[in-house]
Design a protein that fits this description.
binds zinc ion, TIM Barrel, about 230 residues, alpha/beta, ten-stranded mixed beta sheet
Length: about 230
């Protein structure tokens, strides 16, 4: 199987940063190139539990946590050949908010500067993070909102939701998510949620297809905002 030109993976993890991941950044890049993607957004987990435990960072400073968080993305950049776009993303959990104990938010449009200058944004509520995201032009996409244990958030706090999540380990009820996105006019998003191993087994690769290639995450966000894309899904 070969994906259409200008396909972009929107949800992928690296073993370096995500404790549930078992494909290294280099293996993730290889998988995406093998399938025909033009690039990928690295969306490693970011919340106290993951970023502390996996890096042995229980007493870590914000700087150390960001250094650690960026390793998967940086390794992917180093492994990527010319013309394959590696873009920084994040799968954020806002643990301090009771509503969001199990929710995951894919964040697109952030960069290293944002991460370093906005310490402790993971301790915000979604309402607070929404304001910060507006200020910096970030997109907030609730990941797999209809998976067991998730709490669906108000559409006005979100830019979009995942309507296709290709992780074979969970039932994300993608069909219901697609109806929800339509009802509330949310950006529909798609990603493999690839963690290596058999997480993609038997499932179609996820992502979006753009009319033309993008070189960086800013262009990717612009295309999403314009709704100038098609979805990869089953
Ligand atoms: Zn994971
Ligand atoms: Zn994920």
């Amino acid at each position: 199987m070969r994906l259409p030109p200008n396909s972009y993976e929107m949800h992928i993890h690296t073993a370096e940063v995500s404790p549930c991941g078992c494909a290294t950044a280099q293996e993730a890049v290889r998988r995406c190139i093998g399938l025909g993607y033009g690039g990928m957004a690295v969306t490693d987990h970011f919340h106290c539990g993951h970023a502390h435990v996996s890096g042995g960072l229980s007493q870590a400073s914000w700087r150390q946590r960001i250094d650690f968080f960026l390793t998967g993305y940086q390794n992917a950049c180093n492994a990527a050949p010319e013309g394959f776009a590696v873009m920084l993303g994040m799968e954020l959990r806002l643990l301090r908010s009771w509503d969001d104990q199990n929710n995951d938010y894919l964040v697109y449009g952030l960069d290293e500067d944002f991460l370093r200058k906005n310490a402790d944004f993971d301790l915000m509520t979604l309402e607070e993070f929404r304001k910060l995201a507006n200020k910096h032009g970030l997109l907030i996409v609730q990941a797999h909102p209809f998976r067991n244990g998730m709490k669906l958030r108000e559409p006005e706090l979100l830019d979009g939701i995942e309507v296709y999540n290709g992780n074979a380990h969970h039932d994300s009820r993608n069909d219901i998510a697609a109806l929800w996105a339509k009802k509330y006019d949310l950006l529909p998003c798609s990603g493999s949620d690839y963690h290596g191993g058999d997480t993609g087994e038997g499932r179609a690769p996820g992502g979006i297809v753009l009319p033309q290639p993008v070189a960086d995450v800013r262009q990717l966000v612009q295309a999403l905002r314009r709704r100038d894309y098609l979805l990869l899904e089953e």
